[in-house]
Amino acid sequence: MKKVINNIRNSKALVMLVWVLGIVVIWEIFAFVVAATKRTPENILPHIWQIIASFFDPKPVANGMSCTQVVLVNAGQTLSRAGQGFLIGTLIGFILAILMKLSRIVEKIAAPYLMLIQLIPILGMAPIILAMTHDIGSSRIIIAAILTFYPVATNTLAGLNSVEKAKYELMYSYAAKKSTIYFKMLIPSCIPYFFTGLKIAAPMAITASILVDTLQGDGGLGCMLSQSLKHAMSIYVFWDIVVFSAVIGVLSCSLMGWIEKLVSPLKRIERKTKKKGAA
Amino acid sequence: MSLTNAYNPKNDVEIAINNVSVVFKDNKGNDVKALDNVDFDIHKGEFISLLGPSGCGKTTLLRTIADLLEPTSGNVRVSGMTPKEIRLMQKFGIVFQSPVLFEWRTVKKNIELPLEIMGYSKKDRSDRADEMLEMVGLTKFANHYPQQLSGGMQQRVGIARAFGIRPEILLMDEPFSALDEFTKEKLHLDLLRIWEKTNKTIVFVTHNIQEAVFLSNRICVLSPHPGRLSAVVDVDLPYPRTTDMRDTPHFGELVSKVRNSFEGGSL
After folding, report:
1. What is the per-residue pLDDT for B170?
2. What pTM, to 2 d.p., does this model score?
3. Which one of A163, A167, A174, A177 makes the best mutation probe of the B interface by having the most chain B beta carbons within 10 Å?
4. Would you call B148 and A264 a contact, using CB atoms and an 8 Å cutoff?
5. Which pLDDT does position A10 carry in this prediction?
6. CA distance A8 to chain B (A)
7. Is residue B103 included in any domain, yes or no?
């Protein structure tokens, strides 16, 4: 019996399954309550199978497109802009972290601004950016970049600052140049932290892009989301977008983990030893 | 028993420690004397131990040799030059208490690191690293990552890395203190074998009397508060040293002699 419990405890897949089942059960309990008490339950909480069914329902809901078509067509522009903003934000975040490490003055000047930008609600910042750019596409990119660069910059900087003193002394004893210290020691040691930043930022960039969509009426997941909520089209478009963006958010995060595994052999080793430890 | 001695004192001074004092400020702003007027010479090819309890300044002294710390007064000369000059010439090999390996590099790449910094060609680096791996008996683990190795093996990688650059002087700061007794005794023999082969000067910091006696040909005994040199003990055990020497009466005598040489004998 103890062995069985241990196996369950160690099995990641099982933990995941229990998790998902838990959510499904809670969701369905509420869905049944809502269905029994409200007049339009699908507006509040439809059953999971109703949402799944709506993905496969060929009935057109808007402009002759089915639910799934609406989601996919609009996902393209939202996600591509989110992706671009994410890349730009990543680049800026990484470079900023290096600059902050290189110079105490840059760090002291930049740190309060970083905090400030992070404190402004995205909902307030987005219309300002839109008013400045007059372009929903660039606004999506800019907002996604702003949301991305902060976690990337702070995590990367934490990684750069995590290098222990003895490593510096080792490099010093070899009379290593500053550039060598950065390329051979500091940058490789910040990579795991950098990827932590990416994993946090990726779903945020997508959320931000969807949010910016809602500001204007010309397409994008967020736009469809708000139209569906205003009953301009089937409410299931809303539910489908919620499910779709949740899945994409999770996938974007695991994509970062996958890329990390690809670029750092260390990660592969860690997984392997962990698995061995669990077995 | 062979009486060959790997250490042939030519009496040429390699490291001269001239009246070195180091004063630190503690967190209340008071002066704390870590080293008080330490003055002695280390000869070429010597295996010398800096021995003492914590607070005796042995690591501080090593750091002044390594140019990791500037003496408050007095100076250190290595082959007639300042430690900084020697460091810039990349003639120091350092082994720390922890192995200080780069986790993202394989064992072999870790050994190659200083060679990369010194601008060796790819082939030279690889050849040298292979040679060092063989020397410390880790050839099979060349492509492993540090965290896949035991503590003793990691420390051996650190030693291989330090010897890989063929340093003139090897500075070792309690390299074995975190290891278990069995691993430690094995690494003692390994280190002596490498030293006998390479004939480098080794400055070895330790707080372990037996370790100091077993390894060194000379022991600098340092006493704490303030850190000062209280004795220099010659160890006349012949090289190559073997584990059974640890059980001889002479070994025991040397250990007591060192123990008694601490100032005040209060140990």
Report:
1. 94
2. 0.83
3. A174
4. no
5. 65
6. 27
7. no
Please judge whether B100 and A166 are an interchain contact, meaning their C-beta atoms are less than 8 angstroms apart.
yes
Taking an 8 Å cut-off on Cβ atoms, the answer to whether A270 and B98 are in contact is: no
Contact call for A269 and B147, based on CB within 8 A? yes
Biggest CA-to-CA distance, chain A: 76
B114 found inside a domain:
no
State residue B239's pLDDT score: 85
Q: What is the rounded distance in angstroms from the CA atom of residue A72 to the CA atom of residue A84?
A: 18
Q: Which residues of B touch A264 (CB under 8 A)?
A: 104
d(C-alpha B178, C-alpha A193), whole Å:
28
> Model confidence at B2, in pLDDT bands (50, 70, 90)?
very low
Give the domain range for residue B50.
13-91+167-265
Q: Are B84 and B62 in contact (CB under 8 A)?
A: no
CATH of the structural domain A60-278, one choice from 1.10.3720.10, 1.10.10.10, 1.20.120.450, 3.90.226.10 = 1.10.3720.10
Number of structural domains in chain B: 1
Q: Which residues of chain A have pLDDT under 70?
A: 1-10, 267-279
Determine, for residues B90 and A175 on separate chains, whether the beta-carbon distance falls below 8 Å: yes
Asked if B94 and B62 count as a contact pair (C-beta separation under 8 A), the reply is no
Residues with Cβ within 8 Å of B208's Cβ and at least 6 positions away in sequence, in order, are B51, B177
B70 found inside a domain = yes
Question: Is residue B140 in a domain?
Answer: no
Q: Which residue has the tokens 């492509």?
A: B143
Q: Is A208 within 8 Å of A82 (Cβ atoms)?
A: yes
What number is the ipTM of this complex?
Answer: 0.87
Contact A240, A51 (CB under 8 A): yes
Identify which of A174, A175, A266 has the shortest CB distance to residue B145. Answer: A266
Closest chain B residue to A180, measured at CA:
B117
For the ranges A64-68, A124-128, B55-59, B174-178, which has the lowest average pLDDT? Answer: A64-68
Q: Where are the domains of chain A?
A: 1-45, 60-278
CATH number at residue B239: 3.40.50.300
Question: How many Å separate Cα A88 from the centre of its chain?
Answer: 15
Average pLDDT over residues B219-225: 90
